[in-house]
Design a protein that fits this description.
Structural class: alpha/beta
CATH class of the largest domain: Alpha Beta
Number of strands: 7
Largest sheet: 7 strands, parallel
CATH superfamily of the largest domain: P-loop containing nucleotide triphosphate hydrolases
CATH topology of the largest domain: Rossmann fold
Number of helices: 10
Strand order of the largest sheet: 3-2-4-1-5-6-7
Bound molecules: adenosine-5'-triphosphate, magnesium ion
């Protein structure tokens, strides 16, 4: 089925991308016992230094800072890295601060795109603008696009009673994750431990969020596998405009019509029709 590839991304700073990436890496590795990698694509390197310095977990960590920021070079460098890591792990998590100079095509390297956002009106408007600017990513390839997950982040107890995600919030389909709660202790975990190391309300909320991400991954894989099979079925007959594929599609229509051959008023036999498809009629003449 291939690795579950998760991108934690936002154009906004300080929304909790690195906190979520580091803790999610530890959760998949420690609690789910999946072979996990963290690829930190953020120049600050917060999530990678967190995982590298905290108590030991069985996850491979890579901090990649692209030296070339030209759109295409950046895309190729990051894409190569993601592809090579996804061959050797079960879960791959990547932390990225988005910039408009980046090529949105990169998002197609992932199964799940998680966008953490605070639920204040001003931050939600920014998140919405960012997502609308890359909306084609989630609609471009039928059946083979990443699933969009929005993660309410640093949510306070008062905000829990509000419901800011109404129908008009976004035109792209998305899955709303259980919120990551605001916890003043969160900064004390940096480089020392993980949020689920100490039982608390924010630990429970984090685990619920992580479980929902894992479930979304299973559903996403099922959907893409189903569609991939359908596309492969079609490919030989429709997509390749080669002599062989044209022959195969004609052959299929002939075999479908075979049962009606004996009633064919034109009397044209099957052999001559196959010869025509292969182009041997002219050669005989
Ligand atoms: N759930 C939380 N509760 C309280 N504070 C949090 C929470 N998540 C993150 N923070 C704090 O918010 C700040 C920003 O978090 P973080 O570095 O994870 O965000 P970021 O989106 O990766 O930021 P940047 O864009 O700078 O990379 C940090 O001080 C962090 O400790
Ligand atoms: Mg960060």
């Amino acid at each position: 089925m291939g690795a579950l590839r998760i991108l934690v991304v936002s154009q906004k700073g300080g929304v909790g991308k690195s906190t979520l990436s580091a803790n999610l890496t530890a959760w998949f590795s420690d609690s789910v016992r999946k072979k996990t990698s963290l690829i930190d694509l953020d120049p600050h390197g917060s999530s990678s230094s967190w995982v590298n310095s905290a108590r030991e977990i069985d996850a491979e960590v890579e901090h990649y800072v692209a030296s070339e920021f030209g759109e295409r070079r950046w895309l190729l460098g990051c894409r190569t890295l993601i592809r090579s890591f996804s061959r050797k792990v079960e879960v791959l998590i990547s932390d990225l601060t988005w910039s408009p100079a980046m090529d949105p095509e990169f998002l197609h390297e992932f199964d799940l795109v998680i966008v953490p956002t605070s639920v204040s009106a001003i931050e939600l408007a920014g998140t919405c603008k960012f997502l609308e600017s890359i909306s084609w990513v989630f609609q471009a390839k039928p059946g083979d696009y990443p699933s969009l997950l929005i993660c309410p982040s640093r949510v306070t107890q008062e905000e829990l009673s509000t419901s800011p995600f109404d129908k008009e919030f976004l035109s792209i389909p998305f899955l709303l994750l259980p919120p990551v709660l605001h916890d003043n202790q969160m900064k004390t975990f940096f480089k020392k431990g993980f949020v689920f190391d100490r039982p608390s309300a924010s630990c429970n909320a984090f685990v619920q969020c992580a479980e929902a991400i894992s479930q979304a991954g299973v559903l996403h894989k099922k959907r893409t596998e189903k569609n991939r099979t359908k596309i492969l079925d079609r490919r030989i007959l429709d997509c390749h405009n080669s002599k062989l594929s044209r022959f195969m599609s004609r052959k299929k229509s002939i075999s479908n019509a075979a049962s009606t051959d004996q009633f064919n008023p034109s009397g044209q036999n099957k052999l001559s029709r196959i010869s025509k498809i292969l182009g041997v009629t002219r050669a005989h003449k």
